[in-house]
Design brief:
two-stranded antiparallel sheet; mainly alpha
Length: 140
C-alpha cells in the first residue's frame, strides 16, 4: 500500500497557524533563518506527528488511518531540539498525545489572538496592522 504524504496545503496551514514558531512551551523559537550575502534563507522547523507515524514510535496509534496520521490535526510545528525531545523513547510517557494537542492549541490561539478576526476590511487596513508585527518579528 502506498503511504500518503503530508500535503502542501497541510504544510502551509501548519506553518501559518504556528506563525513559523516552535509550539513547545516557553520556546517559540523562529523556525526560519534570514537571508544573508552568503546564503539564502532556509527553514529549520520540523513537522512532528502527535500520534507517532511509525509502529513502535512514541504515541503511535494502530487505529489511526494513514490520512489521519498525516493530517493537520495530527501535526505540530517544533524546533529540531523539541522534536527530538518528544520522540525520545524515554520520554514516551512525559509527552502524551493530550499534552501535545494542548500545547498546539495554546500556541496557535496565542498567535491568532494577536490579530483580531474580521477587524480589517481592506488590504491597507491589514498592512497598517501587520507591518509593525513583521518588523518586530525580524528584530527578534
Amino acid at each position: 500500500m502506498q503511504r500518503l504524504a503530508i500535503t502542501q496545503k497541510t504544510i502551509k496551514i501548519l506553518w501559518a497557524n504556528a506563525a513559523g514558531r516552535c509550539a513547545f512551551p516557553d520556546c517559540r523559537d523562529k523556525l526560519c533563518t534570514e537571508a544573508s550575502d552568503n546564503e539564502d534563507a532556509y527553514t529549520i522547523g520540523e513537522m512532528a506527528h502527535i500520534c507517532g507515524k511509525n509502529i513502535g514510535s512514541n504515541r503511535h496509534l494502530t487505529t489511526q488511518s494513514e490520512k489521519e496520521r498525516d493530517s493537520y490535526e495530527n501535526l505540530i510545528l517544533l524546533c529540531p531540539k523539541h522534536h527530538t525531545i518528544i520522540d525520545q523513547p524515554e520520554n514516551a510517557n512525559k509527552y502524551s498525545v493530550k499534552f501535545l494537542l494542548e500545547i498546539k492549541v495554546a500556541h496557535e490561539s496565542y498567535f491568532r489572538g494577536l490579530i483580531p478576526c474580521n477587524s480589517h476590511h481592506s488590504r491597507e487596513d491589514v498592512a497598517k496592522y501587520i507591518f509593525p508585527l513583521i518588523e518586530e518579528n525580524h528584530s527578534s
